[in-house]
Amino acid sequence: MTVTRLTVAFLGLGRMGLPMATNIAAAGYPVVVHNRTRAVADEFASGTAGVSVAETPREAAQQAGVVITMLADERALRAVYEGPDGLLAGWSPGTIAVDMGTTGAAGTAWLARVVGEAGGTAIDSPVSGAVAAAESAGLTLMVGGPSDAVERVRPLLETMSMVIHHVGDTGTGAVMKLAVNNVVYALGQAVSESLVLAERAGIERAQAYSVFVDSAVAAPMVKYRQDNYVNPGTAATQFALDLAAKDLRLIAALADEVGAPMPQAAINLETTVHAIDDGLGQRDMAAVAVYLRTAAR
C-alpha cells in the first residue's frame, strides 16, 4: 500500500488541527474532514483544493487509508471512534490511526486495542509547538508505534513537521509528550512568578519580559508567548488553561503509575486549578500570571 495515494481523514479542526490539515492538503493528499462544528469544516473545504467534508466520522473512515485525530482529550477521542456513526463503524482492515492530540497513556492504549481489533494499526504522534509552528509545518512530532507502520506514514507526518522522533512502541509518544509538557508548564509557572516579582519590585512589565527574551531563559515558548504575558487582556489564546489542567492531571496519573516523584508538577497543577477557579480557564496558560497578580494583593 502506498500511503501517498491514500485519502487522509482528519478530525479536529481547532487552533492546531486546521493548519495541520491545511499542510497535508497542500502537499497533495486528498483530505476528508469531520469537525464537531460543521461550519469550520465547510469553510475549510470550500477554500482548499482536494478537501471534502464527511457527515459523520464513520463516513470519513470509509473513505480513508489513514485517520488522523487532533482532539482535546480521551473523551473527545472516544466520542469520534465509538457508536454507530463512529470511526470504528467505518473502519477497513489495514487502515492506520494516527492520534496527534495529548490523549495520555490510558487513552492511547485504548485506541491501540480497538483499532487493532478492527484490523488496523494505531500510532500515537502528539506534537510540540504552538500555532505558528503548525502553520509553518514546523512541529516536532513524538511518535510511538510499530516501525513498519510509522515508516508507511512518515511522508504524511513530514508534511506537518520539522522534526520526527520515533521514540518506541505504541504509547511512548504519548508518554514523551507529557514529559515535554511538564517542562512547558513548569517554565510557564516560573515565568509567571518571575514576571509578577519584577512588577511588584517596580519594573515595568514589558521591560521585564524583554529581558527574559534576551536572557538564558529564552526558550521558544518564552518568545512566542510574549504577547500573552505582556498583554493578557488582548492577546489571542494559544493554549487554554483548561487544557493545561487536563495535561497536568495526565502527568500526575502517569507519575503515580510509574513511581516518579514530581513535586513541582503538583504545585503547577494546584496553581492552574486556582486560576481556573478564578474564571481564567479559557484564557491562555500565561494567565497564571494574571491569577498571581490578584493573589498577591
Number of helices: 14
Strand content: 5-15%
Report mean pLDDT, rounded to a whole number: 95
Helix content: 40-55%
Spans with pLDDT under 50 lasting ≥5 residues?
A: none
Radius of gyration: 20 Å
Beta-strand segment tally: 9
Instruction: Report the sheet with the most strands, covering strand number, pairing sense and barrel closure.
Output: 6 strands, parallel
Shape: globular
Structural class of the secondary structure composition?
A: alpha/beta
Intertermini distance: 63 Å
Helix-strand pattern: EHEHEHEHEHEEHEHEHHHHHHH
Task: Output the strand order for the largest sheet.
Answer: 3-2-1-4-5-6
What does this structure look like?
The model has no long low-confidence stretch (mean pLDDT 95). The longest helix has 29 residues. The protein has 297 residues and is α/β, with parallel strands linked by helices. It starts with 7 loop residues before the first strand and ends with a helix. 53% of the residues lie in helices and 13% in strands. The strands form two sheets. The chain has a six-stranded parallel beta sheet with strand order 3-2-1-4-5-6, sandwiched between helices. A three-stranded mixed beta sheet has the order 7-8-9. It is globular, with a radius of gyration of 20 Å. β8, α7 and β9 form a beta-alpha-beta unit. It has 14 helices and nine strands. α8 packs across α9, α8 packs across α12 and α12 packs antiparallel against α13.
